[in-house]
Amino acid sequence: MILDERFESEQLDRSVWVPWYLPHWSSRSQSAATYEVGGGELRLSIPADQPLWAEGVHETPLRVSGIQSANYSGPVGSTVGGQPFLTDQPVREEQGEFWGYTPVYGDLEIRMRGTITPRSMIAFWLSGIETAPELSGEICVMEVFGTDPQAIGMGLHRFRDPRLTEDWGTVTRAIDVSAFHTYGVQWRPGSLVFTVDGEVVKRVGQAPNYPVQLEIAVFDFPDRAHLVGGATPVPELVVSHVKHRPAA
Questions:
Q1: Confidence (pLDDT) at 1
Q2: Residues lower than pLDDT 50 in the chain
Q3: Any residues with CB less than 8 A from the CB of 241 and at least 6 apart, and which?
Q4: Measured in whole angstroms, how far is the alpha carbon of residue 5 from the centre of its chain?
Q5: How many whole angstroms separate alpha carbon 107 and alpha carbon 99?
Q6: What is the pLDDT of residue 231?
Q7: What is the spatial distance between Cα 194 and Cα 202, in angstroms, rounded to a whole number?
Q8: What is the β-pairing status of strands 151-157 and 167-172?
Q9: Nearest to residue 145, comparing CAs of 232, 228, 230?
Q10: Which residues contact 45 (CB under 8 A, 6 or more apart)?
């Protein structure tokens, strides 16, 4: 399969994406993204009145606008669901199976820019589909917090996959994240090569060997409001393309 998403339609391609962030731990209504699409861009934002995600469950208040390329959970009350943040976390809203785009290996890249402050962040990552707990490794292609916008987080999170070893860190690049840049990973059996604007910046000598879902999101942390003066800022993430090419 090949993905060449350029967001030229005025509607999100619902054969590939859903506009929620991990709704099984919250609900579709609380996790619904604020977004616009068309003219060659996806624009994710978090207005001041957007609901908290997983309110009363997540340890700190959190708001998210994101899209993801798969969705799945067990029934309400079960612990079957991807990316839990608590031990034995129960599903709050059951999700049917949706496998929009779940590649294994290949070259992936995203061209994006973000408007963030010390209370927000942007990210693009590939998470194991977790139909079993061990299928949970995550390839973090990029994440940037507004507290240190030139420190690009990338690498591998093992989570519940016992075959992997944690290998994640930040790479400092003298770039302006409010301008468009291209972030990518070359994913092969046993290796990950991360790039920024085509330049190799990190290598990891291991990799998941199972399907992943693509996740793109902007986050707001209301408990960090004291770090920003004035009116509540509106974090924004603008994406011009997402590409995947299978490995040769």
A1: 80
A2: none
A3: 4, 5, 6, 7, 40, 109, 110, 111
A4: 16
A5: 19
A6: 82
A7: 5
A8: antiparallel
A9: 228
A10: 34, 35, 65, 218, 234, 235, 236, 237
d(CA 242, CA 67): 12
pLDDT of residue 82: 95
Question: Which amino acid does the sequence have at 25?
Answer: W
223, with CB counted inside 10 A (0-12, 13-18, 19+), is exposed
Picking from 237, 234, 226, the residue whose alpha carbon sits closest to that of residue 49 is 234
Which residues are CB-neighbours of 103 under 8 A, at least 6 positions away?
1, 3, 211, 212, 244, 246
Cα–Cα distance, 152 to 201 (Å, whole number): 10
Nearest residue to 219 (alpha-carbon basis) of 151, 125, 86: 125
Contact 210/135 with Cβ under 8 angstroms? Answer: yes
- CA-based nearest residue to 43, from 244, 222, 216: 216
What is the reported pLDDT for 233?
80
Beta bridge partners of 86: none
